[in-house]
Structures are given as structure tokens and as C-alpha cells.
User: Fold AAA family ATPase from Planktothricoides raciborskii GIHE-MW2.
Amino acid sequence: MLKSLEIKNFRCFESFRLEQLGQVNLLVGSNNSGKTSIL
Assistant:
């Protein structure tokens, strides 16, 4: 299970961090915002 996620200099993300992820996670955003890049 993921506990945190940090992305730097990947596709459209300069710096991005998520902490304390629960058991259910949703990725919501407009088109071309990087949702698929995280997957």
C-alpha cells in the first residue's frame, strides 16, 4: 500500500507530493492535468 507519493520534474509536474494516503484514492482533474502520468 502506498503511504506517500512524491513526483519531481516528470511530464507536467515540477514538484508534487501526497502524504497520508488512505485505502481509497481518487485522481480528479481537468484534461491534460497529469492524472494518467501518476498511474
